[in-house]
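Work Package 4 report. The design task specified in the project plan requires that, given a folded chain encoded as structure tokens, an amino acid be chosen for each position. We show below one input record used in the internal validation round.
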């Protein structure tokens, strides 16, 4: 049985390329995005390469959307072997320039989305006693940057969250955690 991977934020960039790479390595890929209207480029690549990629709707800022996508995959395949938390958004404004709505949004997309996607897959990975969770962060998650503190704060949070999980989940359940900056 093929190993499968759920990747968030696959309409372009790193997520799209990761989907193609995992599929070329023999994985069943569930490429997720919040707006399926942006799937054209990925659909073309799937057709060109006859790749085992299924596009699913998943908005990392909506818990119901996350749960629905994960449950659909598990019902179909019985497992999720790898989660790639890739969805995210840049944000360059100072704290004083940012509205409450913008502050909540940058945190929801870049941090809460990682937490809630991870929370959705962890019970299945614990049950199968294996898994890999990869979170795409940023150099901004390691070093604070001027005029970018809100984004950096969200990415620092992801780094700490992954390190915290790894400190007790890896040995107990054989679930590995990685951050890609």
């Amino acid at each position: 049985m093929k190993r499968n991977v759920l990747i968030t934020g696959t309409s372009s960039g790193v997520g799209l390329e990761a989907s193609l790479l995992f599929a070329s390595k023999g994985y069943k890929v569930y490429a997720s995005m919040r707006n399926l209207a942006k799937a054209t480029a990925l659909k073309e690549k799937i057709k060109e390469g006859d790749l085992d990629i299924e596009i699913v709707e998943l908005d990392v800022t909506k818990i119901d959307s996350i749960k629905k996508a994960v449950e659909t995959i598990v019902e179909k395949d019985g497992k999720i072997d790898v989660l790639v938390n890739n969805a995210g958004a840049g944000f360059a404004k100072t704290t004083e320039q940012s509205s409450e709505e913008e502050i909540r949004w940058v945190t929801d997309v870049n941090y809460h989305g990682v937490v809630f996607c991870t929370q959705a897959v962890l019970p299945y990975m614990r049950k199968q006693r294996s898994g890999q969770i990869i979170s795409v962060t940023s150099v901004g998650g390691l070093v604070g940057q001027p005029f970018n503190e809100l984004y950096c704060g969200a990415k620092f949070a992801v780094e700490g969250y992954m390190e915290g999980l790894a400190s007790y989940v890896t040995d107990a359940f054989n679930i590995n955690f990685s951050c890609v900056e």
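The CA atoms of residues 85 and 105 lie 17 Å apart. Validation will be extended to a larger panel in the next phase.
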